[in-house]
Design brief:
single chain; 252 residues; mainly beta; five-stranded antiparallel β-sheet; 2 helices
């Protein structure tokens, strides 16, 4: 039984292994891959709020049991998770990760006993995911997508356990796998109970950079990555959420 209003997606900043998951689909006319043949995703939203996984990391006990995809044909497709899984997230993120002209959907997919994983869906279902963290009530927070290594690939950045491990990770979608390319310690982008993720990706004419907080929550940081390593710059002191505005607005 779900109680209370579901958490609404909240965006702080203005500039903001093919898995063995059994998924059910519901489409206005057809169900399955044939329904999505030649179609692309135009929009995505979480639906079917549920309290079956009461972690509450995002401020309440409500998560999501399904995702609804809007297709270019005008049809809608519902992908429903089994009872031991939820989308523990704010909103789906649409990006063309493989740069084939069709956008994929990036989500946080959480297992009741194994915790969160970063996952990518397309119009036919699950494409790839990272390993689940391995323990209940362990979460990750997406940071954004960009050409972080400056090699023309679209990479995903996220923070693994932003309240515990505080490790920024960068992965790339290759076929049906998400492959880790880099990790940077002592960075975070979420505080327990906040119904938003802090920071994002900025490009002020010098390439895509990942904006987060330092692990001690004292500084707004820019992370620039390359094949040779990472440069982490403390851009400003963190006082409140407005501390991010000049950073994302390229004033620093």
């Amino acid at each position: 039984m779900v109680s209370g209003a579901p958490r609404l997606p909240s965006f702080l900043l203005r500039p903001v292994t093919r898995g063995a998951v059994h998924l059910l689909c519901m489409v206005a006319v057809l169900c399955g891959a044939t329904a999505a043949l030649g179609q692309t995703i135009t929009d995505a939203r979480y639906t079917e709020p549920t309290d079956r996984y009461a972690h509450g990391v995002l401020g309440d006990a409500i998560e999501w049991g399904a995702i609804e995809l809007s297709l270019s044909s005008g049809e809608r497709k519902l992908i429903r998770l089994p009872d031991h899984m939820v989308f523990e997230d704010l909103a789906p993120r649409l990006h063309d990760l493989d740069q084939d002209g069709d956008r994929e959907v990036i989500v946080v997919l959480t297992h009741a006993d194994k915790g969160a994983a970063l996952a990518v869906f397309d119009e036919n279902g699950l494409v790839a995911q990272t390993d689940h963290i391995g323990q209940r009530n362990r979460w990750l927070a997406p940071a954004g997508v960009g050409d972080f290594l400056r090699d023309k690939r679209q990479l995903i950045a996220y923070v693994d356990r932003p309240h515990l491990k505080k490790e920024l990770k960068i992965v790339v979608l290759e076929g049906d796998r998400l492959i880790e390319l880099a990790s940077v310690p002592n960075l975070t982008n979420h505080r327990i109970g906040d119904d938003f993720i802090i920071g994002g990706v900025r490009n002020c004419g010098d390439g895509d950079m990942i904006v987060t907080l330092s692990g001690d929550l004292k500084y707004v940081t820019n992370t620039r990555t390359s094949a040779g390593g990472h440069i982490i710059t403390r851009v400003a002191q963190f006082h409140d959420l407005e501390s991010f505005d000049p950073v994302m607005g390229c004033e620093y």
